[in-house]
Amino acid sequence: MSQAADGSRDLTLTGVTKEYADFTAVKSLDLTVPQGEFFALLGPSGCGKTTTLRMVAGLDTPTTGSITLGDLDITYAKPYQRPVNTVFQNYALFPHLTIFENVAFGLRRKGVKNVAQPVEAMLELVELTSQARKKPTQLSGGQQQRVALARALINQPEVLLLDEPLGALDLKLRRAMQTELKRIQSEVGLTFVHVTHDQEEAMGMADTIAVMNAGVIEQMGSPVELYDNPRTAFVANFLGRSSLMAATVKEVTSEYVKANMHGTVVSIPIERAHVREGSAWVGIRPEKVLIAAAGTPIDAPGNHIEGGIVTDVNYVGVSTEYLVRMPWGQEIGAFAQNTGHQDILPVGSQVDLSWRPEFAFLLDSDEDPNAG
Ligand code: ATP
Fold first, then answer.
1. Is the ipTM of this complex over 0.90?
2. Which of 109, 156, 307, 367 has the fewest Cβ atoms within 10 angstroms?
């Protein structure tokens, strides 16, 4: 198989569009997954994640655009002609075959004679050596998922596609399998493209996340980049929680954009200000907002809002989640970490709020803030 000039086998989608009769599921998608990366396609139901994955697998063909692996064009290659394997949510194991034979299946089909050694190595990788003689129904959901993974990996694909592979597992098992998947991916060093609508799953596992919405990628970056510096209200709300507050841009300096929220002026670092004029949303994550009883001196530099009233208190052990109504009526979340003995501020308390300017972001307010 041919190699790109630099030898890399990056997966690249260029201008990929998928149209059904009267519906465009994926719109002019451009993305590159570097070789060996754990990449997540994250988005709500119907945003086009599975359609994108199916085109990479060869189960669907793009209406326009191209898909390449290194310098190999696989846009129209048959599924079995491309070095890509898929693990589906429903595992699709053969119920009448043992675990060993399920894993051996791909090799036997290729006519490989001596399957014992590679199958045993795969079973060891997914920690199922002791289950080799059992049938799939005798295993737990998490174990069946690992069999599906071993069965795909034994074919030595260059890219492994995972379509909501943990979707059928309960929450605790899903979190355990995330750690397991990440370990396996770093051991085998293959490119993983993981489709999920679970933001915690994507954040916990992926090197890079592409957030999809209505057939387009809204933003792509590391989990930290997306969380700290969302570029759209959709991304701000889909990954974690955020308060978006109506404001008007007042001044742009070389370092900050200053925005006016009903007379209170707040600063947003220039690299996080995605609008430079007119109306906008000031966004802030609730755990970045400090809350204190009214009049408590605040020594940290930052943006201050006085005259808030606590409207809701939710004690969740590790933190206390407050909802605070600001003087102009809009509400903002403020999560206080319960690191010591905490005095909980009851509903109706008068409070002051503050946050460091570097934590805020400024977004286009033409977008629906509740999207996502
Ligand atoms: P989910 O998480 O629910 O699987 P998804 O993000 O994977 O969602 P897709 O399965 O890619 O979404 O579907 C994207 C859109 O394309 C949906 O609105 C879906 O109804 C539509 N769609 C998918 N397949 C077809 C098809 N064969 N014909 C017409 N429309 C389709």
1. yes
2. 109
Q: Give the number of the atom of ligand 1 that is nearest the alpha carbon of residue 18.
A: 16
Q: Are strands 361-364 and 72-73 parallel, antiparallel or unpaired?
A: unpaired
Q: Where in the chain is the domain with CATH 3.40.50.300?
A: 11-228
Give the atom of ligand 1 at the shortest distance from the alpha carbon of 21.
29
CATH class of domain segment(s) 11-228: alpha beta
**pLDDT tens track for 12-33:** 999 999 999 999 999 999 999 9
**Nearest atom in ligand 1 to 215's CA:** 14
* Pocket residues: Cβ below 6 A from ligand 1: 20, 23, 25, 43, 45-51, 197
CA distance 12 to 41: 14
Task: For ligand 1, pick from 23, 26, 61, 193 the residue to mutate: most ligand atoms within 8 Å of CB.
Answer: 23
- pTM higher than the cut 0.95: no
- The residue contributing the CA closest to ligand 1 atom 30 is 20
Give CA angle at 147 (142, 172), nearest 5°: 10
